[in-house]
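Figure caption, in words: inputs first, then the predicted bound structure.
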Amino acid sequence: MANDGTKTRHITCVLCEASCGLEVQVRGSEIVSIKGHAEDPLSRGHICPKGVALQDLHNDPDRLRRPVKRVGDDWVEVEWPEAIDLAAELLGGVQERHGRDAVATYLGNPNVHSIGALTHGTAIPRALGSKHVFSATSVDQLPHHLVAWAMYGHQFLLPVPDIDRTRLLVLVGTNPMASNGSLWTVPDFPGRLRELRSRGGRLVVLDPRRTETAAMADEHHFVRPGTDATLLLALVHVVLTEGLARPAAYVDDLNELGVAVADFTPELAESVSGVAAKAIRDLARDVAVGRAAVHGRMGVSTQEFGVVCQWAIQCLMAITGNLDRPGGTMFTSPAIDIIERGLVGRGHRGRTTSGVRGLPEFGGELPVSVLAEEMAGPAPAIRGIITVAGNPVSSTPAGARLADRLAELEAVVAIDPYINETTRNAHVILPPTGPLERDHYDLIFHTLAVRNTTRWSSALFPRGADQRHDWEIARDLVLALARRRGRRLPLKQRIRLAASPRLSIDVLLRSTRRGLSVRKLARTPGGVDLGPLEPRFPDRLRTQDHRIALTPTVLTSGLAALRARLPEMRAAALSDDLLLIGRRHQRDNNSWMHNTTRLTRGRPRHQLLMHPDDLAARGITDGSLVTVASEVSSLQVEVKSSDEVMPGVVSLPHGYGHRRPGVRLSNAVEVPGVTMNDLTDPARVEGVSGNAVLNGIPVVVTPAAMSAKH
Ligand SMILES: Nc1nc2c(c(=O)[nH]1)N[C@H]1C(S)=C(S)[C@@H](COP(=O)(O)OP(=O)(O)OC[C@H]3O[C@@H](n4cnc5c(=O)[nH]c(N)nc54)[C@H](O)[C@@H]3O)O[C@H]1N2
Ligand SMILES: Nc1nc2c(c(=O)[nH]1)N[C@H]1C(S)=C(S)[C@@H](COP(=O)(O)OP(=O)(O)OC[C@H]3O[C@@H](n4cnc5c(=O)[nH]c(N)nc54)[C@H](O)[C@@H]3O)O[C@H]1N2
Ligand code: SF4
Ligand SMILES: [Mo]
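Bound structure (MGD present):
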């Protein structure tokens, strides 16, 4: 401690998957500084502007600290017991009147960044027992889970690029310079990329936009949105036809794979994707050399052929012997192994289906694209909802439609610290503590990290007497639901609910027999380094025979739809139609964190990016207001001329557009921009998984002045 009472503390940043270790100077209840923790074995001192903004989040006067209930158009603070009982009454009442399935749960992104949500949050949908469970997974990484389940036998066997040892890194539809990596905990991506380059390694990026990551690459190819599947299958095709395959002994069905991809030649891929056949051949040969890692994320997850894309990438890694090898894509050995411990199920598909469209569940969840339709009609299936750390009005397709439905529901409960586009529709809001007021342990992100480490993060500040942690809210709500039904929960369940996350993690750490405990980790700033990733297959495979089948029917079934779309894709490549894609910025965080000027000041970044040739062809001037119309809706936004996007492609960020009535985000409502998901279409889902299509949306862009005349 310094003379003035300043203390140095080490915590984990929970704002993105990078999970950086931070060093914070605190004086009493005041934050003096936040910087990266240089000694952290995983994040090595990295920090981004969002990490610094944790203090703004902590001090934000708009952040709720006590529950509120809606009375007319006003919000009234209520005591915790009353708020919990009200929530249980609202949700339980709907179930009593209309059946269990009448209440839906939406689990949003920050759940995976909160240990209490992970240890206790899932008890809420379990207590409700409704088939209507939704999460951000189906506007995000669902294809990865489905492919991992079908090929490796467990939805969480997700390989991560071994960036620290690779020779060739190929990034498809992902921009880690802005996002800091996804399904890939890779803090200090810029530093790791520099090291890769200085070892003589190369980065290749495939993206319709010359992103911040593409700008750092040795090679960047513009790909027409939604066509990557042909390109990725062509890579597999080249490896197989040129005799370059050298899979591990536990990989089966090479011949079947050859048959499946026979028609996906580099020339076909060129005709729809715009990437030269020669470049595809060269890339396939380079990947086959070894120590190569291919990683595909949002751009190839939330698009029409997301499952085929992720399947093709896994096949490519497996047949070239890059899977589970140093320098390729690898699996972690986390201290708390969520797979081995059974903390996450292996996955299942089709046990239930959605009512209107009949889309299958995966892993106990239905695709969120069906949420609004299940609330519609004279006898809607869903009449109440609880959202936990989610803002689906902003983050799911045709969110505006969902907002209208939410306003009519009999019960809307939110566990959320803000009154935003979604929670303004709630009858009661239960706000949890913020990231600096709670303990943290990365159950999920240690499982996806580029290095095996284990780190405990103690709350920086104690919670106020009138605040509750998310795990306490989940515990109390589950108990209140049971009480309302006149039931006593089984002892085992009560014990589990009563155990704090700290206690649960401690028990799990101690049982690893590696001499680990929360206490020990809490005394070791940055945590314990458990070393580089190591080969884990075939032991870690969870398929019955501990082998990998390359062509499970559920995955190859996506090929028919792809073949059927080829003529249209070819025609589209020659037309001047526009396709809309998303983008992320380093200082944005999905649909929240716009309430801090530290992150929102500076040049505006909400505009529609459009290629100068496309602007000229439509007589649109740079900076003017344009109308962007999709099949479902239209909106107006400023356009920005940019040759970063390829001709025929326009780009908008998501998570903007806070100027909706009732939103209580005093700074965010000043932030210009529109809600991109007013343009996305819930009818457009990936055919196998039901994942939302958020990239490659056909749109028409016209000058706003002109469309006003019509
Ligand atoms: N068009 C388009 N749409 C997209 C995407 C895209 O790329 N393009 N990306 C998609 C992706 S990948 C994702 S993950 C989703 C994210 O979408 P959501 O799952 O809706 O998550 P966020 O937008 O991050 O909203 C977070 C919510 O949680 C609240 N919150 C923050 N911290 C906590 C906490 O600790 N506890 C609780 N209880 N609440 C908290 C915030 O106030 C906010 O309401 O959006 C998806 N939507
Ligand atoms: N700063 C910041 N960091 C974040 C987030 C954030 O909102 N802000 N969100 C977090 C979350 S929830 C997630 S899931 C991750 C996502 O992490 P990333 O996947 O890295 O996120 P994006 O920046 O959306 O990258 C998607 C890329 O795909 C490209 N793309 C779009 N369509 C296509 C296509 O058809 N084909 C190809 N090849 N590319 C395409 C886009 O141009 C974009 O560059 O980021 C996380 N980190
Ligand atoms: S990169 Fe992610 S984890 Fe690291 S400081 Fe930024 S927001 Fe936090
Ligand atoms: Mo995400």
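The first strand starts at residue 6 and ends at 12.
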